[in-house]
Amino acid sequence: MKLTLEQAALHKALGRIGGVVERAQTIPILGNVLIAAEGDIVTLSGSNLDMETVVHLPASVERPGAMTVSAATITDIARNAPNGAEIMLEHDPAADPRLMVMFARSRYQLAVLPASDFPVRDDPAWPNTLELDARELRAILGRSAFAASTDETRYYLNGVYLHVVAEGNGSWLRAAAADTTRLAYAQIRAPEGMPVFPGVILPRKTVAEFMKLLDNRVGGVALQLSRTAVRLTAGDVSIASKLVDGDYPDYTRPIAPTFAISISFDRLALAGAVRRVALISGEKERGVKLTLDQGALAVSVRNMEAGQAAEEIAIDYDGPRLELGFNARIILEALDQSEADRLLLRANGGRDPIAITPEPDDAEAGLMLSILSPRIVHG
Description:
This protein has helices at 7-18, 71-80, 134-145, 204-214, 267-277, 328-336, and strands at 2-6, 32-38, 41-47, 51-58, 60-63, 65-70, 86-92, 96-103, 106-110, 112-113, 128-133, 159-167, 170-178, 182-189, 200-203, 220-225, 229-234, 237-242, 261-266, 287-293, 296-303, 307-314, 322-327, 342-347, 354-358, 368-372. By secondary structure, it is an alpha+beta fold. The termini are far apart.
């Protein structure tokens, strides 16, 4: 194999693969990147057995071939090569079992492993292909993934549940996630002609890699689904992954059909107040109290060691006094999912879950919902 490609393109491609290849490996080949050259294309692949990333790059291929090399090593070399450098990769096992990497006056000889040992995924045919807008897919994944559980004993909650729901006057593609204290979902109108497919659970790490691939991307992408796997293709990059094997529970049960209290608040004002007040709440609990009273939403903390803090936000409210206790991080993550200036906080009682949604006349209305379960904050 002998090929030449541009430094920036190689570095960017290896960066894509770096999210899948883990440095600490008990299986040496999984620490390597597969490099295969054919025609005028070089294909880079990385795998951790559960997930695989494949990137196609244009290259000047003088001699086709394939082999694997340490992903960490070649990434470091590409990162430190001069900007705009032409990097040549040459592997001729008959003359030298090592991979030659050359640019300018630099020469490297790297150990390789056979391409035949690399675990290439052999997914079945993809029965369902969804053509989606990159920004919309990124939005529904990001606005739900923050609520995914990290409790490995409830493995079926360790990801985002992607499914189609019929609601109102149409169908929606919805991404939902939940743990023991919160749930969140975000949805977009199901594209016309979208195939009917069973709900699938995307692993949390897979969702993170999908979102990195979708960042700042515009235009269409393809999401392919089978009963056991998912693949996202965006341009010359594709990420394939196993699905979480399990049945997602009925996450809609904590959503109250109606709420007795509904107040509008400034999203950034509340987020700022929570951040400031939580500074003295303690590293472990980070608990804050929200108090609804006549014309004000008060955020307060009482810490037996550090003291107490409080801040008020003006709201249009004349109902009964209501106290709600939450972890500060949970509130802030829910608020950060929206871009709206104002949101709605809806509640029934101090011990019942609350809902945070965009206002009815906001462009985000109907697209997202966060449900937070209160806990008791003493004092």
